[in-house]
Each structure stands twice: as structure tokens, then as C-alpha cells.
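chain below, 678 aa
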Amino acid sequence: MLICLKKESRHLTDLTLVKASYNSGSPPYLKPKPSTSWSAAKSKELYGFKRWGADHFSVDAEGFATVHPLGDSKHIRILDVVEEAVDMGHRAPMVIRFQDLLRHRVSQINQVFNQAIVEEEYAGSYRGVFPIKVNQLREVVDEIVDAGKEFNYGLEAGSKPELMIALAMHEGNERLLICNGYKDHDYIRLALIGRKLGKQIIIVVEQLAELEDIIRLSAELDVKPLIGFRAKLQTRGEGKWAKSSGDDAKFGLNTAEILIACEKLRRADLEDCLRLVHFHIGSQVPNIITIKNAVIEATRFYCQLAKMGFPIGLLDVGGGLGIDYDGSRSNYESSMNYTMAEYARDVVSSIREICNASGVAAPDIVSESGRAVVAPHSMLVVEVFERINKRESLGKHHHPKTKHKIVSDMEEMLRNQAKLGRLECFHDALQKKEEAFSLFNLGYLDLENRAAAEQIFWQICERIARTTQTKGYVPEELHELKKMLADQYVCNFSVFQSLLDHWALKQLFPIAPIHRLDEEPTVNATLVDITCDSDGKINSFIDIEDVQDFLQLHPLNNKPYYLGIFLTGAYQDIMGDLHNLFGRVNEAHVFLEDDEPNGFYIEETLNGSRIADVIEGVQYSQSDLCRKMKKQIDAATRKDMIKPREGVRLLDLYEKQMLQKTYLSIERGPARRKKSRK
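prediction:
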């Protein structure tokens, strides 16, 4: 197994020490050093566009993030899309879908497999399917089905609702429809209905009991089923979903169960119904060696069953094709050490070699690559509207009327900081801060002295942070200073609704401003959302060598400041929850168009959830709530707590809010312009 450990990397922003006397009321603190040499190219490198953006995302010379849907020179400024959507009444947070990019990915995966088949002189063909669990949204499945027509690109369903969608959306009898997941009688009946319509629907057996049901129900409906066996491989996956494979896998038949299943088919005279061998070793597999080992093992299963006389013909390699979220091209869990083309070549060559050695005809290859197809086409745009800075009061020194000794000690420490070692000074400052808090809790320190102690502590920390940039080895404890000193940027969105994988699985996504990229980002910040939950934050960010604790961003300037969260098209669009009842965000569906001024048009917009929508989703009636509110207002009016005219106005306000979006309506000062190119 290849092992690639991500190296630790510590990047500290260039800071300048501004000198001032502590007693003057302007204590020393650190300000960003302005740069005269910053460029959009530096931002492109800083945020990783060159790495994770591949051929699809970049930064232009004027500092705007761009998308290249077809992987060529045609591009769209993302801010142009946002501003047009805002003019149409759809504010951030919003999902932007670049439909041409989605179509391009469908074509790309088919083309790389077909090219690999030619290069390897492979006798079989490629028959891919899209697993709609990755993104069940109608507008996504519609586009994939249409783009896949020329390739006979099929669908995969893992539940009854998904199968209901797939049956209706599945067109043509040449496309495969793979049925995975646990199945009850109704699920099986639905699949067999599709068989009666002539569709190539393959029911994959996950457990022996399902096979008995398939045999019995197919006889009742008088239709021959197409059956697949999911093999429970010994090869284990890697990454966040490694536990979904191996002996403890949730799905699949072990070797003994496969033999029992074969015998059941023979007894039912259905040997000719076994058409597919399937396996799956998890999503987002970062290491190509793991994939190759799994394909080899599964092909051995296929060859053995073929030699037993079953006319199989299809080998389904499942999902697992990854996305390089951090651009490191490594076997780190948020990356992948291979390309889509390499994946296709290795799958094809491994199957060919095993089949040739076994004297078995090469099967048609099926893959269920969902993440790799849909992740790049969708991004989330959020607006930053507030900044939380624990050091904001550094320039406003509190002078206690009666200065406590601990404050005097910390002042002395600040004056003599240069005489102490960095680590010693940090330890002493921490000790004094904790001592000050203890004294406050015991009632021996007043509020003004506590405030002074806090301010001096942060001044000491910032001075220490400054010295870490100019000296060689930095002790591990001092690395935490950057994290401690980072600001928090408050963004108008919900992590739980829009980035569930980040919250639940610590999945990393590329995040970057979509404008002002020709300006130097001088603020180290983490991101927090507007949910009433401490876990509603992003404090892990991609980096070429390590996971960063903060992101370098621009100072806020009372103008809209937008961040793009990229590669979110897989699972995030569909898996969010309603924490705090923040619902689905606005959407814009974008197509390339040469005749349009900015090279695109918004084909469709979808409104995000209204307050009335989400509260009715948790069993509250809009009309009932309004009625109860009216009752309370009427009672207050009778008691002369409010005037009748005011009561009418308050009820009207309440009712109108029911029709508003669940997210914040950000209002800015007069400095805000309708359109802010920067």
C-alpha cells in the first residue's frame, strides 16, 4: 500500500509591529503590512485554484474567480452570476449550478473509459450509471439523463423513492438501471414492473433473503428478472468511508453465501438470470492501489462464476472515484493520487489481465461514479456580514481607578517581553491570565482590572506571533497562537443545511473569495454560520501540505463580501437538515451563451425555503399560528397595551414574515452600492 503522509506546514501572515506607549492609551498591536506587489496570480496560488480547480476554476487578471464549464478558455465570472441573481431577487446564500460543467463531466467519464478500452484493446464496452443518491434533485438528474443519451448512460437507485424516480426518468432499453440497497416486496415489484416494460433493470442481491423474494415475486408477475450479486470483498477501502467495506460491510454476500445463492438460482431454473457481479469499497477512495486490488479480487469472483456456467456479462466496479478537494494529488482522505483517466485505465487493464489469464470473455464494465460526476458543477456562495475579533479593543486601554497588582505585573511583562524567551513569555502570560480570571471569580478583581488584564494578554500574544515569523524553529505551543488570534467571519448560511459533510465527517471543501483577489488578504479568519449552535462553524481548510486552522481573507468594507465554497455538488445539495429551521437556499442554473454580454444566462432560478414552508414541515400550520398570534394581539389591544392601529400593523408584520426566506436579510449602510465589482 502506498503511504503519503501530509507534512505539517505553518504559514504565518506578514505582520508589522506598530509601536506605541502602553500608557498613552494606544497599546502596541499588530496591523497587516500593506503589500504593493500582490496580484491575482498570488491569490490563485494561495487558495489553490491551480490545484483543485483543475481545468474548471481559476482567477482572472482583475481578481475575479471564474468557472470554465467545458475545461477550455470559455469562462464566466462567478460574481457576475451572483449579481444577476441578486437583481432577480435571489440573494445569498445561493447554490449556483453550472449545467454545462455537469454535462461535460458526464461526457468526460464516458470518454476516458472508452479511450482506455481502445488503448488496452479491451473486448468489452463501458456502460456507466449515475447513482442518484448522490444528488436526487430533478434539475441534476434531468441534465445527466439528457447528457448521457449518446453514451447509453444509465441510473442507479438505492431506495423505493429513488427507484420511482429512476423508472420514470430512465429512457430507452439500452441503458442500465441498477437496483441496490435493502429491498422489500414493493421495491422488488417496482423493479419487475420495469422488466415488463423491457427495461434493463438489474436487481442486486444484498442478502440471501432478497433472492428468495425475487424468485417468488418474478413467478407471480410472470417475468424473468435480471439479477446481480454484490460480493463482500476482503479488500478494504481507504479514507472516511473505509469501514463500509471488508468483513463488517453493511451490504453484500460473502463467499459461502454466493455459492448458496447460485444453488438457489439453479433450483429455480434461473441460472440465465444472473447477469452482474457488483462490489463497492466506499466513497472517495484516495488511493489507486486500493481500487486496483478491489477490482482484481472482484474480477476473480466474476471469472469463477462465469466458469460455473452463469452467463453474467457485466462487472460493476461500484463507486469510489474521488475528487481532489485539496489539490494535493495525494492519498490523503480529501484528495486522490490519481486522475479520472488513470482510474479508467487501471480498471480496464486489471479486468482484462485477470480475464485473459482465466480464459474468460471480458465483461462489459459498469461504474457507479457519482461524486466525480456531480461534485464540480455546483458551488455555494455565502455572504460575510460581520466580524468577531477578540482583540478589537486593543487600542482602547482601560485604566482601572485602582490598579491591581496582577495588572501591574502584566504591564511589566509587556515592557520587558524582549528580555524573555518566546515560550517563557507565553507561559507567563497564560499563567497571569488564568490567575486574573480566578481572582475575578473569587471576587478579588473588578471588571476594569479584568479588562486590562485581557488586553495586555492579547498584546503579548501578538508580539510573540510577530517574532515567530523571523526566527527559525517555532515550539509547537506557539503554533496555536495564530489560531488563537484568528478572527471569526460570520456568514449568512447554515453549515448543517448546506455543508453537512463538513460538520459530520470533517470533509474539506475549497473555500475562497470570488472577488477582490487582486488585493492581499490580510485577515486570518475562521467561518461561523448563523445557527444557534457552537458546531456551526468551519475551522478546517485545505492546504497543499496540511489542514489549515484558518483562512486568509480580506478586511470587510461595508460592501458585499462573497465567499465561494466549491465542489459541493455531491450529497451536500440533498443531505442537509433543518437545524434552526434554516431551509433550502436560493438556486441559479447557469448556461454558457456566447451572445450574452457576460458569456452566460441564468436559465432557471429556484426560490429558497420560506419560513412558512419550513414550519409546516415540522407540523405547524401557518394559518393556525397566525390565528393564535391575532388572538394575543386582540387581547393586548383590549387591555390597552397597544393601540388598535398598532395591533393591525404588528399582525401584518407577523403574517408577512411567514412569506420571507429563512436566512438573514442583510442591510448595509449608505456606503453600499448596488453593484460592487470589488
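The longest helix spans residues 99-119. DSSP finds 22 helices and 23 strands in the chain.
thats it, cya
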